[in-house]
Amino acid sequence: MHKSDFRFSHRLRVRWAEADLQGIVFNGHYLTYADVGITEYFRELGQAYSAETGVKGADFFAVRTLLEYRSPARFDEQLDVHVRIAKLGNSSMQFLIGIYRDDELLVNGEIVYVHADQSSRQPTRIPEAFRAAVREFERCTPEG
């Protein structure tokens, strides 16, 4: 996975509260960094999280997360969280994540979301407006 595989990234700085006494980021914070990146990805698409689904009563729910740790980040470093949608199915989508310090890949992974009814959590089709925004932004067809 290389930075050039992504069209979107969001920069953040490691805060004091995210590091242990040795100044190394606690592993659970990388999932928060990925979540921030995905939120900013939605914003870049023009699909703010509160309105991204286009269907009242439905939402995206995370159903799978996988992170692979390669090298630690440290307090006060600037990190770039790279995000892209690799697969866009009928009711699910797979995000690929790459967290970099300069050109060094620190963490990579994937997060799968399912579009579902908020009450029953039964899968529903991802709205066409969202699908079109993804296709246009990624300049490809991540269907599959």
From TrEMBL:
Gene3D superfamilies given in the database record: Hotdog Thioesterase (3.10.129.10)
Keywords recorded for this protein, A-Z: Hydrolase
Every Thioesterase domain range: 22-106
MF terms in GO: fatty acyl-CoA hydrolase activity
Pfam families, alphabetized: 4HBT
PANTHER family on file: 4-HYDROXYBENZOYL-COA THIOESTERASE FAMILY MEMBER, NOVEL THIOESTERASE SUPERFAMILY DOMAIN AND SAPOSIN A-TYPE DOMAIN CONTAINING PROTEIN (0610012H03RIK)
Family stated for the protein in its record: Belongs to the 4-hydroxybenzoyl-CoA thioesterase family.
Protein name per its UniProtKB record: MFS transporter
